[in-house]
Amino acid sequence: NTGAKNHLRVKKIFNLAAWWGGAWIFIMSSLTILFREQIFKLFCREEMAAELLSVGPTNMMIFFSGFQFVGYAIIVGQYFQATGHGTISLMMSLSRQCLLLVPLMLIIPRFLGPVGIWWAAPVSDVLSVLIAVGFHLYERKRIKLALAVA
Q1: What's the predicted TM-score (pTM) here?
Q2: Crossing angle, helix 70-82 and helix 7-34, to 10 degrees?
Q3: C-alpha 78: how far from its chain's center?
Q4: How does pLDDT run across 59-103, given as a tens digit for each residue?
Q5: Cβ–Cβ under 8 Å, residues 53 and 41
Q6: Which of the four, 37, 82, 129, 136, has the lowest number of CB atoms within 10 Å?
Protein backbone atom coordinates (compact mmCIF):
# COMPACT_ATOMS: atom_id res chain seq x y z
CA ASN A 1 0.00 0.00 0.00
CA THR A 2 2.86 2.39 0.75
CA GLY A 3 4.61 1.68 -2.55
CA ALA A 4 1.32 2.00 -4.42
CA LYS A 5 0.77 5.35 -2.69
CA ASN A 6 -2.54 4.14 -1.31
CA HIS A 7 -2.23 6.57 1.60
CA LEU A 8 -5.81 6.22 2.79
CA ARG A 9 -5.40 2.46 3.26
CA VAL A 10 -1.98 2.92 4.91
CA LYS A 11 -3.54 5.35 7.38
CA LYS A 12 -6.43 3.00 8.12
CA ILE A 13 -4.24 -0.08 8.64
CA PHE A 14 -1.65 1.86 10.64
CA ASN A 15 -4.27 3.11 13.11
CA LEU A 16 -6.08 -0.24 13.25
CA ALA A 17 -2.88 -2.18 13.94
CA ALA A 18 -1.72 0.31 16.59
CA TRP A 19 -5.03 0.08 18.46
CA TRP A 20 -5.37 -3.71 18.23
CA GLY A 21 -1.74 -4.36 19.10
CA GLY A 22 -1.96 -1.95 21.99
CA ALA A 23 -5.20 -3.48 23.24
CA TRP A 24 -3.84 -7.04 23.07
CA ILE A 25 -0.71 -6.27 25.10
CA PHE A 26 -2.76 -4.20 27.54
CA ILE A 27 -5.16 -7.08 28.18
CA MET A 28 -2.45 -9.73 28.49
CA SER A 29 -0.20 -7.71 30.78
CA SER A 30 -3.22 -6.70 32.89
CA LEU A 31 -4.03 -10.39 33.32
CA THR A 32 -0.40 -11.01 34.28
CA ILE A 33 -0.61 -8.33 36.94
CA LEU A 34 -3.99 -9.56 38.17
CA PHE A 35 -2.83 -13.19 38.49
CA ARG A 36 0.79 -12.43 39.42
CA GLU A 37 0.79 -14.57 42.58
CA GLN A 38 -0.56 -17.63 40.77
CA ILE A 39 1.94 -17.13 37.94
CA PHE A 40 4.76 -16.62 40.39
CA LYS A 41 3.86 -19.83 42.25
CA LEU A 42 4.32 -21.79 39.01
CA PHE A 43 8.03 -21.02 39.19
CA CYS A 44 8.59 -21.60 42.92
CA ARG A 45 9.47 -24.82 44.68
CA GLU A 46 7.51 -25.37 47.89
CA GLU A 47 10.47 -24.69 50.19
CA MET A 48 11.20 -21.38 48.42
CA ALA A 49 7.62 -20.21 48.05
CA ALA A 50 7.15 -18.26 51.30
CA GLU A 51 10.31 -16.18 50.92
CA LEU A 52 9.84 -15.52 47.21
CA LEU A 53 6.13 -14.80 47.52
CA SER A 54 6.87 -12.09 50.07
CA VAL A 55 8.62 -9.91 47.44
CA GLY A 56 8.17 -11.52 44.02
CA PRO A 57 4.57 -10.65 43.14
CA THR A 58 5.00 -7.01 44.16
CA ASN A 59 8.15 -6.66 42.07
CA MET A 60 6.43 -8.42 39.20
CA MET A 61 3.55 -5.93 39.41
CA ILE A 62 5.98 -3.01 39.35
CA PHE A 63 7.87 -4.46 36.39
CA PHE A 64 4.75 -5.08 34.29
CA SER A 65 2.94 -1.86 35.20
CA GLY A 66 4.37 0.06 32.24
CA PHE A 67 4.38 -2.89 29.86
CA GLN A 68 0.63 -2.56 29.39
CA PHE A 69 1.20 0.22 26.88
CA VAL A 70 4.21 -1.17 25.00
CA GLY A 71 2.14 -3.04 22.39
CA TYR A 72 1.26 0.26 20.81
CA ALA A 73 4.93 1.30 20.66
CA ILE A 74 5.93 -2.04 19.14
CA ILE A 75 3.30 -1.74 16.39
CA VAL A 76 4.33 1.84 15.61
CA GLY A 77 7.98 0.76 15.37
CA GLN A 78 7.10 -2.14 13.09
CA TYR A 79 5.07 0.19 10.90
CA PHE A 80 8.09 2.41 10.33
CA GLN A 81 10.23 -0.61 9.51
CA ALA A 82 7.65 -1.92 7.02
CA THR A 83 7.32 1.45 5.30
CA GLY A 84 11.04 1.90 4.74
CA HIS A 85 11.80 4.21 7.67
CA GLY A 86 14.44 1.95 9.19
CA THR A 87 16.19 4.70 11.14
CA ILE A 88 13.03 5.66 13.02
CA SER A 89 12.20 2.01 13.62
CA LEU A 90 15.68 1.29 14.94
CA MET A 91 15.59 4.33 17.19
CA MET A 92 12.25 3.24 18.62
CA SER A 93 13.40 -0.34 19.16
CA LEU A 94 16.60 0.71 20.86
CA SER A 95 14.96 3.41 22.96
CA ARG A 96 13.03 1.05 25.22
CA GLN A 97 15.65 -1.59 25.96
CA CYS A 98 18.97 0.22 25.51
CA LEU A 99 18.79 3.99 25.37
CA LEU A 100 16.29 4.30 28.24
CA LEU A 101 16.28 1.12 30.32
CA VAL A 102 19.99 0.75 31.01
CA PRO A 103 20.55 4.36 32.14
CA LEU A 104 17.35 4.28 34.19
CA MET A 105 18.54 1.09 35.92
CA LEU A 106 21.62 3.03 36.97
CA ILE A 107 19.85 6.26 37.95
CA ILE A 108 16.56 5.32 39.65
CA PRO A 109 18.06 3.04 42.35
CA ARG A 110 20.09 6.01 43.58
CA PHE A 111 16.80 7.63 44.58
CA LEU A 112 14.61 4.64 45.44
CA GLY A 113 17.15 2.05 46.55
CA PRO A 114 17.11 -1.53 45.23
CA VAL A 115 13.41 -1.36 44.29
CA GLY A 116 14.45 1.29 41.76
CA ILE A 117 15.75 -1.50 39.52
CA TRP A 118 12.17 -2.74 39.17
CA TRP A 119 10.84 0.78 38.53
CA ALA A 120 13.31 1.36 35.66
CA ALA A 121 11.36 -0.96 33.34
CA PRO A 122 7.94 0.75 33.60
CA VAL A 123 9.50 4.20 33.36
CA SER A 124 11.37 3.07 30.24
CA ASP A 125 8.17 1.57 28.82
CA VAL A 126 6.13 4.73 29.38
CA LEU A 127 8.83 6.95 27.88
CA SER A 128 9.10 4.69 24.82
CA VAL A 129 5.33 4.90 24.36
CA LEU A 130 5.55 8.71 24.48
CA ILE A 131 8.23 8.55 21.78
CA ALA A 132 5.94 6.29 19.73
CA VAL A 133 3.05 8.73 20.13
CA GLY A 134 5.26 11.52 18.81
CA PHE A 135 6.28 9.49 15.76
CA HIS A 136 2.69 8.32 15.23
CA LEU A 137 1.42 11.91 15.21
CA TYR A 138 4.24 12.90 12.86
CA GLU A 139 3.31 10.06 10.47
CA ARG A 140 -0.41 10.85 10.59
CA LYS A 141 0.40 14.42 9.63
CA ARG A 142 2.67 13.23 6.80
CA ILE A 143 -0.03 10.89 5.47
CA LYS A 144 -2.64 13.66 5.74
CA LEU A 145 -0.42 15.90 3.60
CA ALA A 146 0.11 13.09 1.08
CA LEU A 147 -3.66 12.58 0.84
CA ALA A 148 -4.19 16.30 0.26
CA VAL A 149 -1.65 16.29 -2.59
CA ALA A 150 -3.04 13.12 -4.19
Answers
A1: 0.80
A2: 150
A3: 12
A4: 888 988 888 888 888 888 988 998 888 999 998 889 888 899 999
A5: yes
A6: 37
